[in-house]
Amino acid sequence: DRSAMAGALLVMGVVVNNAILLMHGKQKMRLLGVYGIRSWYNVYREKMRPVLITSCTTLAGLLPLMLLEGDGFWQTLAIVVGWGLGASTMFLILLMGIWERREAGA
């Protein structure tokens, strides 16, 4: 289905942007001499708010399209983007924590 593929591409773009935002914050902490859990704490405190606000407002904007009866294109697109964005935001939070553990152990 074209709407599902378009939604998946849209979600991938947002996920990459969110990851770049967090990794940029992590790099900034390194340059300031902050490492380990404290650096991730600072990054999350500083950068996760914009990521979560963007995700929540996008989901709120897609909600009417998800509930729309009739044309399947927009409904499918909204469902794919909504679920993809929600799941990817949670995975991003988990994966960054796992990455930190790996980095601390190395």
Characterise the protein shown here.
There is one protein chain. It is built from three helices and no strands. With 106 residues, it is mainly α. The protein has a single domain (2-105), classed as Multidrug efflux transporter AcrB transmembrane domain (Multidrug efflux transporter AcrB transmembrane fold), CATH 1.20.1640.10. Helix 1 packs antiparallel against helix 2 (36-67) and helix 2 runs antiparallel to helix 3. The protein is elongated, with a radius of gyration of 16 Å.
Q: What is the strand and helix layout of this fold?
A:
Layout (H helix, E strand, L loop, with lengths): L1 H30 L4 H32 L4 H34 L1
Helix pairs in contact: 1-2, 1-3, 2-3
CATH superfamily: Multidrug efflux transporter AcrB transmembrane domain
Q: Ranges with pLDDT <50 over ≥5 residues?
A: none
Annotated CATH architecture: Up-down Bundle
Overall shape: elongated
Question: What is the number of E strands?
Answer: 0
Strand count, sense and closure of the main sheet?
A: none
Mean pLDDT equals 85
Query: Could you give the distance between the termini?
Result: 44 Å
Name of the CATH class = Mainly Alpha
Order of helices and strands: HHH
Total count of domains: 1
